[in-house]
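We modelled the chain as a single entity of 235 amino acids. Its sequence is:
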Amino acid sequence: MAIGLLGTKIGMTQVYNDAGKVYPVTVIKLGPCPVLQVREITRDGYDAVQIGFEDQPRRKATKAERGHISSEMESNRRKKAPAGTQFLPKANCEPQKYIREFRLDKPNEAYPVGKLLTVEDIFKDIKSVDVIGTTKGRGFAGTMKKDNYAGMPASHGAKKVHRSIGGTGSLASNRGSGRPKKGHPMPGRYGAERVTVRNLTIVKIDVENHLLLVEGGIPGANGGLVMVRATNKVK
């Protein structure tokens, strides 16, 4: 596993290379992301780096959120602690709106607490990335929209069954209790799920504006939170 960055989806556009070839790309604003904590396998049971994204006003942050990132804004816990007690270092930044962790295969001293990670630092030598986001929520949907069903016949004599899923009596056979079999597509909630799109090619990096352009689409609506990391897909 590799460290990544948090960002927001800006939208899609087109860019041209020097040969005149057009690329459909998604523009992602990534970082800068401060390192808030470093997980260690000896203390936490796993190796990871915890980062934050997008400052939020202190008045909107809880006392726990303020104390998590700053020694100045935490409660009086340290004052009441016995002499010689060792505490973990703090990033000493503003409260973060989003906090996520990226698992690591082994400890990496290149990401100390308080370091500000930028898109150039993480993806300068990376060719492809994985993008993790939350798909658009579609609410309660039928199977024609949710599972790509064809619907029932719409010929003469069919009465209001055009978007029906058909008979479900066979689903309860061989169960003994009349309960339907598990896993059969039915109407229900559609979307609002965590989805990972893997192995997207990096087309361009805008260091000044903290932008990353990847070829193709990514999950979620414009303005939604995404996690971007170096791809772990092996061809």
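As a brief sanity check on the tokenised model: The domain at 4-138+194-230 is CATH 3.30.160.810 (Double Stranded RNA Binding Domain). The chain has two domains: 4-138+194-230, 142-190.
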